[in-house]
Amino acid sequence: MPEERTEQPHIVTCTAPVNIAVIKYWGKRNEDLILPINSSLSVTLHQDQLKTTTTVATSRSFQEDRIWLNGKEEDITHPRLQSCLREIRRLARKRRNDGDSGVDSASLSHKVHICSVNNFPTAAGLASSAAGFACLVYTLARVFGVEGELSGIARQGSGSACRSMYGGFVQWIMGNKEDGKDSLAQQVEPETHWPELRILVLVASAERKPVGSTSGMQTSVKTSCLLKHRAESVVPGRMVEMTEAIRKKDFAAFAELTMKDSNQFHATCLDTYPPIFYLNHVSQQIISLVHRYNKHYGETRVAYTFDAGPNAVIFTLQQHVPEFVHVVQHFFPPETNGADFIKGLPVNCASLSEELKQGIGLEPMPKGINYIISTKVGPGPCVVEDPTQQLLSSDGFPKKMM
Length: 402
Ligand code: DP6
Hints:
The longest helix has 23 residues, at 225-247. Residues 1-5 have low confidence and may be disordered. The chain contains 10 helices and 17 strands. The chain has 2 domains: 10-192 and 383-389, Ribosomal Protein S5, domain 2, CATH 3.30.230; 197-376, 2-Layer Sandwich (Alpha-Beta Plaits), CATH 3.30.70.890. β3 (28-30) and β4 form a beta hairpin. α6 (225-247) packs antiparallel against α7 (251-271). It is an alpha+beta fold. Bound molecules: ligand DP6.
């Protein structure tokens, strides 16, 4: 790359996905480096439905590093943002000193302007920090010409963000080094591996979560002996079992382990002192609904998982989507006539038999679920080539306030 001589900013835009853990990460052994007490495994969701877009601009004319998130300028001195910026610049400097990079020396001293938006509500509790930090690190790496392993840097933004650096099925290996160099994400299977797998995000509430994951897991590590037992004696075996279920595309095994691990994570929250409740009565109703639905058919067709909030993420196979979506719509009648109830991948019509409704036998809960996002497994972060998609204009400032 020739040395930059103009005042025109150097601009790069990328997108990154949300991921949903099926073996949960909960608890750190090192708060600064974000090193977990157990390994975890997740599914990367498709960016057509859920993604973060980030534009980074660098210019010698910028006075300071600045960041705008969803249209609002935020504090760039946030320690986790600073860790990501520092680590990327450090790697870029190292590459330059090693003489194996095309980065021009000027751009390393340049300040950055960062602008980032989600195509889904930030406050809906849909792991926005994972997609956000993954996108930030991926985009910064492109700007500064850094290649190779980046999940270790994304991890320092938010633990779960390291898993959003890959598509498909991804594990975060906890590692055992003090410096965290071996605490990295790795793809288990690519996004093409299990094309029939479908994901439904049931948005139960758009309110902010009561206790953030960072402080929640801190209290759990301090007070829950169930969490210690889980990390030491349960998760290692589950990582092997889950990898095997995914490799074999064994839906029943995948689904049962996903539900059990979600339940155990929420049990550790209840075992935390004072206890943390992420599930509400809507979440509990969804859990009952899934178990009754599976029981009705005498096989595991649907699985749920919940993170640090009341929204459910449902896994099922393509062939069961229309009926299950209509079951959800029947037991959680939406406010409107249902036109906006289903977003994302189109869902075919299905009729529900009286026998199935009776078999499930729950009292309908009107307006319990705001909407459903229908999606599938998707790829990792990517570069957006189309300049019209940039969030910063050619002067390096946000195009418009959203
Ligand atoms: C319940 O990655 O948000 O979603 O590392 O403190 O930023 P920090 O926490 P975060 O925790 C995610 C917790 C979880 C489970 C998971 O995604 O594995």
